[in-house]
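Friendly challenge for the regulars: who can give me the structure tokens for this chain first? No prize, just bragging rights.
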Amino acid sequence: MHLAALAYRLSGHLPSLRGLAASLVGVLIAPVAQAQPLPDLAGLAGHTVFGATVESHAVWSVYLGPDGRAQFTYASGGTAEATWRAADRNVLCFAFDDSGEETCKRGSAYGIGSGWSTVYPQSDGQWHPYQEDPHGSSRIFAAWPGRYSHDPASFTGDLRESFPGRAYIDLPGQGIYGVEIRPDGTGAILNDTGPRNTESAEYGARHMCIHGECLDLQISDGRLQLLKRDGDRFEGHVLYLAKGRFSPPAIPDEPAGHASAYDDGPAVIYPRDGSTQIIQPVDFDAWERPDAVRVDFKDGSPRIGGRVLVPVFRPDHATIVAVTKGYALIRFGGPDLPENCVEAYRWLWVTGPDHGQMTPPFGTCAETAKVDVTWQGGIILATITPDSGAPGTFRYFPGSKDMGEPLDVSLVSGDAADIPWMAEDDWKAIEAREAAERRAAEEARDALARKEAKAREERQRAARLDAARRTAEPFGRIAGGNLFDILAADSVRVAIGESSEGVLLTEFLQEQFTEATFLPENRQAGSTYIGAACGSAGCKELRLIAIYDAETDAVFGILTSGATNLAMFGALDWIDGKTVATGLDAVSNEIQREMAWQSRGER
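First reply, four minutes later:
Bragging rights claimed.
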């Protein structure tokens, strides 16, 4: 057997030495509204493609006619015509005259937009760019079906003249994303990842906000730069403001019936029976209406579909005073309110057949003479007029970027009472907590059982080792003797002393092998003998094998603990692998069986 093969055989049976071994686009909020990235350029026939140069952010557009004619419009107001063809899945080629020469552009993924790089064909069928920038000298930020003319100066100096609509923003190195402000008071960050969600939106002359997270606009080096408020983090450059371009309203139309319609938003229903109401939830993500559910009260706490939402909320009395969409305004009173607080209000958002969310209490704390509820775009305004004192108008945006957050109610004008309120768990949170407590208890029981089983196994293992332990001493002969007869040979003692850590190894063997838990008879193959022993703590902790030639006094030994070779002595080059292979296999198998018995009581 070759030396390397023998080393492999040793490593197979005796473990050998082991070596020891910025942000995303649209970072204002997460998750964000989803906007599909542009399709491949070849699929944009009949679309107007909008782009902006990297150097100056000058906006241009091209209409890709289905007839193969393209109409370019540049930031300067100039135009050009060309024929166009889809030369590849994401490559368009334009011919501006009859010379046969073409200018070819390739798209590349860039947020919800695309690159626009000049390329030329090679003989290998690949397209190679002219520019070093892989995305080219322009960025495509949108492609709309139909023919449109763009506004070369979409920013007039006041964002209020550009919204409601959509802002296309380039975050260099990250890609194009969008901020959409809708006329119903909602908005979204448009990104190529993440689920659709609805947020409250607000804007002014030089800022835009989604769910209270604001970007401030400033002009720097002739570019429209966005910085995150209260942090001055750069969030990109505004490339284009598309006034009037936005998704459908976040809140579907209210069906007719007993509703009193308002021009500026959906209707509000005032039920005659203030204790029970049929309410139809609104699924914002699916943009559909689930089946209507019954909302009533048990012990003052609202029930949805017959299930109490928040068991700890048990006021003395509660009444539904207004209903709209999936929302009910509840007036209540009871001991949980501060002293001298007669009554307060909470919005109940019905989100499913047996679940919803409630806002913290709000109001004036005085007895109410009248409540007026109106919509202002996508925001609900509740004006509470007390019998005496000034009314208070409260703003509620029906929706939240995080369904686990308390719903947001804020004072718009007038008086409001400070109503402290403890955190509450609804039935879902209670069941989740109880399930977590059960899992924790089960895990604790399992951990205790594992600990007890391990202790029991350790006691059994210790008993087996005690029974196997014997004095480590030679018999006085190699043939029919054991490992310690081999170690007693003069040439072996010399080999151990001449090893790299000879003195330490000698002392270690004398200290650690006063007793052995496994000490088989030496195996013989011709003049070669193979001996083995396990230390007093067991075969897993310490093993020693020695191969010795009685005619030449040559020896090789290896000391192993666990999966680590602690030391070796002697040499391997004298060993005839064919002669020792059978004996080495037999010794190794014996050690493995002994290790299994010592550890688990199995042979």
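The chain has four domains: 25-250, 260-422, 425-459, 469-600. Residues 469-600 form one domain. Your move, everyone else.
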